[in-house]
DNA sequence: CGGAACGTTAGGCAAGTTGGCTAACTATTG
DNA sequence: CAATAGTTAGCCAACTTGCCTAACGTTCCG
């Protein structure tokens, strides 16, 4: 609980934050709208807007017309009041960075892709400077950088774990980046950010909670509980590759990675006479061919096994199949998984295919960056 | 986000709530302490305390002495400002209710146990009236009733699911109770409430999050994430009895209940030559005997299998073994489970035995009731 | 059909209310 | 006597109510 107490300054700060938050949420509002939404009086609303525009946080974007009376000014949060950069990091032979610079309104201002050098520090700072210059921003005016990582970030220890990209596992890297950039640097798992994209741009817009299963070379799970992501003790929640299958021990031991990890999917495709270079290609081939039902059925059964364990622990109303393999499987795979799950357990979450177009990880990072930037701007409008 | 805006009245409400919350949290405080904690000035602190005492929410409980200057008044939240009742419901041949009435400070005022009639409505109202009368409270002065149920409550549908106690599955029962009692009625799963007890009185006081596994006749899991419990889409989170074991289908299918449910534990004990009437008796016998290692090892291995699935999804820093069987197993079982888990998975949550004495469900319900009552009182001190 | 009157709405200004702060003062106790 | 608890008085900041002006669309009469 926020234990706040204070005097008139606090009141002013509260009212300004509330007004700015409304502008950010709803886009454009007139003074009259704000008056109704905040419950404040006309003079106060005017004063608050005067302060917000003076501070460069709000701008007049138009005038009403058509009705009786004078035209009212339409306000919006100033899109240029802050900028954030989302960076997706992945390993593709060498470190590869995709980045988007967007403004406070969430609009994309600049975009870049680089095959980076080994040392992350100059790679990221160079990318940030490049984007800022191309967007015509003063260097250092980016207030927030969101990293999407193929690993898990432990903020308590300040270290990125389980990451295969060289140089990125150095302790203190995130803090060093923040110091060098003069910006807040947030870091999160790529699958978690894909889940954020799913909530903003995909099929999970309306649900209270959902779980997103990421099938690709690796295997991952993101758990969204009412809009906040579950991260676990050391950022390790959702490592469902370790879910055990059967009671085997030692060499006999089997886990979910052995069942539906990338190599396992390729092997399964092979036993059904489907040869492909990647698991997603194998699944795509199966979906488009006429007689590949048995392969998909077998794969769905394995996926359903993993989902049964997840559903028994979390009981999510919706499970989204994502990642290259999940997307390639499409509705054909989703309906088979649903059937397999219903046949084996009494739990019945809805199963859907990801609805995010393009690069879900970068889109999710962009959404997360924008969200954090808004929170930062709202908080900064209320000093102390 | 609470989007609040307002005038001086809001300020006063904020300051009063903050002060009352501090009193509830810290027990006893002088005006000077409050001044320091809230940052308010001397006259304002006096005014706030005058209002709180006038409203009967705070009382003077003593005076400082020893230092120079006049003695300062020591304030506390008025324990009699509100009362709550915790009721644990279970099936024992016939419906059985255990109840505790406690005041705002959390102190027990009265206690009752009844083997109740079939209809829950008169049983509960009778119990509440009886406790109130014995505590010398005016009828209807109890503002909050917390129910602990061997089932899951779906607040959206207003129905208690998966409950074996006759009469308690009637739709609308909780709302009817609230109307008849003129009080807020909260309902929660008994294992969830045992987890709350574990946080307040047991071994989970300091951790950020933990999972509590309940071994008894049935099998349950409570997930505490930073003090809030995960409940799932339809209150079904933690139904780990459904976690599948191996890829069998149909009659061949095995789940965790078949492995570590009460009957399964009894059977396992039997194969190791231990005969007992209940699973907890079997485990207790094994722990106290010298040569029952093999049984405990086998049981620990099965438990570790279930925990591996839970840990892969949630990555909790701590797992507490609770319920009759978990408590009977004690440290002997916990160390074996730890070893078995380390041997099979790379995940390494700490494993501990429940540290809650007495009836953990009722204690947890009492803690939950007290917490909700405090929130209610704080909220009611800030009108609108 | 054109223009003036009317009603409606945006926004500003002035006076009044509320709540909290500072500073000075009184009272109390080791 | 020195230090501290608590009160009183006056001030300030922020919000509200009520009223005013100006702008705009509509309507109605000449």
Task: Give the SSE layout.
The structure is a homodimer of 384-residue chains.
Chain A: H1 8-26, E1 28-30, H2 31-38, H3 42-54, E2 58-63, E3 73-77, E4 83-92, E5 94-103, E6 108-115, H4 120-134, E7 142-149, E8 152-154, E9 159-161, H5 173-181, E10 184-189, H6 190-201, E11 209-215, E12 219-225, E13 228-229, E14 244-245, E15 254-255, H7 256-260, H8 262-271, H9 279-288, H10 293-314, E16 318-322, H11 323-344, E17 350-353, H12 360-380
Parallel strand pairs in A: 4-7, 7-10, 11-16, 16-17
Antiparallel strand pairs in A: 1-3, 2-3, 4-5, 5-6, 8-9, 11-12, 12-13, 14-15
Helix pairs in contact in A: 1-3, 2-3, 4-5, 6-12, 8-9, 9-11, 10-11
The structure holds a DNA duplex (30 and 30 nucleotides).
Task: Give a short summary of the structure.
The structure is a homodimer of 384-residue chains. With 384 residues, chain A is α/β, with parallel strands linked by helices. Chain A has helices at 8-26, 31-38, 42-54, 120-134, 173-181, 190-201, 256-260, 262-271, 279-288, 293-314, 323-344, 360-380; strands spanning 28-30, 58-63, 73-77, 83-92, 94-103, 108-115, 142-149, 152-154, 159-161, 184-189, 209-215, 219-225, 228-229, 244-245, 254-255, 318-322, 350-353.
